[in-house]
Specification:
The complex is a heterodimer of chains A (about 180) and B (about 240). By secondary structure, chain A is α/β, with parallel strands linked by helices. Chain A has helices spanning about 15-30, 75-85, 115-125, 130-140, 145-155, 165-175; strands spanning about 5-10, 35-40, 50-55, 70-75, 85-95, 110-115. Chain A has one domain: 3-Layer(aba) Sandwich (Pyruvate-ferredoxin Oxidoreductase, domain 3), CATH 3.40.920. In chain B, strand 5 and strand 6 form a beta hairpin. The chains are: A alpha/beta (about 180), B alpha/beta (about 240).
Chain lengths: ~180, ~240
């Protein structure tokens, strides 16, 4: 049985949606999986909607486009409305309750609700909310090892931004905590 | 009591998606005010650019057309020739008008099409991520000139307005700015002149508007206006060019 995981990650431009997807994809690739990463965003330089589609598979992926996702990571409210229809029945729905207040159908989906943005602020930098969400996701479905993702975070940091590695790694670990 | 100021009818009452401190919001509003004042809202047809203002037609409440990147003046030529009774204008950035669209710009101007061109010059490519534009200044850091534009490698800021002024069929070119209330008022006057020229069948008219881009100049909105006032106008002098 070929393992395929299709996840759509969506939020506002500036929330680090693309980076979340790229870190996830890189980690899966380093563990020997086939991966695709497909970004989509509008004309707006600031704000607007941004999303990416990540597919992780044991075998070659013929199309990077996701019609029906296995999991959704939703970081803001407009994205919840936009993407819930693309989640399969009993799919995993991860929701950033810091910015989302809506009712969700927990008979249809497995829902994980956490305040990722608030946790990031608590850790000291609002911009690491994406890593908190990623931590939550990989703790739930174990698609990649936390160790691998921690190394990817270290490698992805630009030369002049090495001081940000620590807080991003902390955010990843905080997201994976069983209790918040 | 007489109402002397209100929201222009030609401008929709919705928030725009533009960055804080962007000049597009001001330019859109001035155009809408001019169209209301000249009472040409039913006759006006705008051609939107490709760039941050690609969805300008969401903000204006009059007829608009899209165009492929840089080809707004080709679309405008077609519309005006088929419907000379309409007032046709293009709204273009420096990439749209002076990079990918240079061909259309020169030849539309050279043919002397009786249309009005609003040229928004913010010295960068905005929507695509802040790359160097033809109008980027020497020394200006952009996504593709991280050490600053170097004339020996990337040439000099292009003065497309001054180039077009050489063409005999071009009838009006003025460069204005948005860096202060006084300059904003002058910009409105120039826009009005460009539209009035079309109404009077004078010929090809272009208004170049120096416009702030805080995001890709890496400046606060106020500092961006200061940069236009202190740096940009030295390279792009304001005033009537033709």
């Amino acid at each position: 049985m070929i393992m395929v995981e299709k996840v759509i990650i969506a939020g506002a431009g500036g929330q680090g949606i693309m980076l979340l997807g790229r870190v996830m994809a890189e980690a899966a690739m380093r563990e020997g999986k086939f991966v695709t990463w497909l970004p989509a965003y509008g004309a707006e330089v600031r704000g607007g909607t941004a999303y990416c589609m990540v597919i992780i598979s044991d075998s070659e992926i013929s199309s990077p486009y996701i019609d029906e996702a296995d999991s959704l990571i939703i970081m803001n409210e407009p994205s919840l409305a936009k993407f819930t229809s693309r989640l399969k029945n009993k799919g995993l729905l991860i929701v950033n309750t810091s910015l989302i207040n809506k009712e969700m159908d927990d008979k249809k989906f497995h829902i994980l609700k956490h305040p990722f943005t608030d946790k990031a602020i608590q850790l000291g930098n609002i911009r690491v909310a994406n890593m908190v969400a990623l931590g939550c996701y990989i703790a739930k479905n174990k698609i990649v090892a936390t160790k691998t993702v921690l190394k990817v975070i270290e490698d992805f940091a630009p030369k002049n931004k090495k001081e940000l590695i620590g807080i991003n790694q902390q955010a990843l670990l905080a997201g994976g905590e069983p209790k918040w | 009591m007489e109402k002397i100021f209100s929201h222009p009818k030609s401008l929709r009452q919705i928030s725009t998606h533009y960055c804080a401190g962007c000049g597009h919001g001001i330019a859109h509003r001035l155009i809408a005010e001019v169209i209301d004042e000249l009472a040409i809202r039913e006759k006006i047809i705008a051609i939107a650019p490709v760039g941050c203002a690609v969805i300008a037609y969401d903000y204006w409440d009059f007829d608009c057309s899209e165009a492929a990147h840089g080809r707004a003046l080709a679309v405008a030529t077609a519309i005006k020739r088929l419907r000379p009774q309409n007032i046709v204008f293009t709204y273009q950035g420096d990439g749209d008008l002076a990079a990918i669209g240079t061909n259309e710009t020169i030849h539309t101007a050279n043919r002397g099409e009786n249309i009005s061109v609003i040229f928004i010059n913010n010295a960068v490519y905005g929507m695509t991520g802040g790359q160097m534009a033809p109008t980027t200044l020497i020394g200006q850091k952009t996504a593709t000139t991280p050490k600053g534009r170097d004339a020996t490698v990337q040439g000099y800021p292009l003065k497309i307005s001054e180039l077009l002024a050489q063409l005999p069929a071009v009838k009006y070119i003025e460069r204005v700015s948005l860096h202060s209330p006084q300059e904003v008022l002058k910009t409105k006057k120039a826009i009005k002149q460009a539209f009035q020229n079309q109404i009077d069948n004078v010929g090809f008219s272009l208004v170049e508007i120096l416009s702030p881009c805080p995001t890709y100049w890496d400046l606060s909105p106020k500092a961006a206006l200061d940069w236009i006032r202190e740096v940009m106008v030295k390279e792009f002098p304001l005033g009537r060019i033709k």
